[in-house]
Inverse folding.
């Protein structure tokens, strides 16, 4: 579904403080399932996530979606791809204070031109699925951390994206809430969605919900030693 070919990403290119955050990434993200990107701070995992989600462009290399080259498209086309293909859950959730849960959820759909009644119906169905209907009209700043996360997930799903992108989604949650999030991931995976996220949380990386863990260090993918051993001696 998503393919990265020889991806390199530089910041401050051509300046004395030039820094290559990614240095030769080849990666395929299959359709469906949950993939986790992990690595120490500065390893490049968040930069890689932004390129996978078309939030940033690579300095070098190509990005393909369903076999089509998208990394060189003009921004207006990338904006449309993001809206139709991706949903985003950010570490701080980025909910808008003063708006209710349902208003936050339907906000990304306003540019589509759909009727408000249709958007509300779809948002309410998502709230019900994530057991949050009783918080529909509450201002998001009055919700608990776990409830805010579920609102953020509903917002990410409002346009029925194929791919959910999440950056350290459990970083501000305790173990119980992290496990609740994994339950939601299982639900999404069972629906046939693709989930790609960064996480340094062992509760996430070691979960049976996760299909694949990609380790990064210094802007490169670290080989899976178990897989290398199996290929060499299997």
């Amino acid at each position: 579904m998503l393919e990265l070919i020889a991806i390199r990403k530089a910041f401050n290119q051509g300046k004395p403080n030039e820094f290559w955050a990614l240095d030769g990434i080849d990666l395929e993200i299959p359709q469906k399932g949950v993939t986790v990107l992990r690595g120490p701070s500065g390893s490049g995992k968040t930069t890689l996530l932004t390129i996978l989600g078309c939030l940033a462009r690579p300095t070098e290399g190509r990005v393909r979606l369903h076999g089509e080259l998208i990394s060189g498209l003009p921004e207006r086309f990338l904006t449309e791809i993001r809206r139709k293909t991706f949903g985003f859950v950010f570490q701080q959730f980025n909910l808008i204070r003063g708006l209710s849960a349902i208003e936050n959820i339907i906000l990304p759909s306003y540019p589509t031109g759909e009727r408000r009644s249709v958007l509300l119906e779809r948002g309410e169905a998502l709230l019900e699925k994530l057991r949050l209907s009783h918080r529909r009209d509450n201002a998001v700043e009055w919700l608990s951390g776990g409830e805010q996360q579920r609102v953020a997930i509903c917002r990410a799903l409002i346009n029925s994206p194929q791919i959910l992108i999440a950056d350290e989604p459990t970083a501000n949650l305790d173990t119980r809430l992290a496990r609740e999030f994994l339950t939601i991931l299982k639900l999404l995976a069972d629906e046939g969605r693709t989930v790609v996220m960064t996480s340094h949380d062992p509760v996430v990386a070691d979960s049976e919900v996760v299909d694949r863990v990609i380790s990064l260090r210094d802007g490169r993918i670290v080989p899976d030693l178990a897989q290398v051993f199996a290929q060499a001696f299997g």
User: Anything to note?
Assistant: The longest helix spans residues 175-190. Residues 178 and 203 are 7 Å apart (CA to CA).
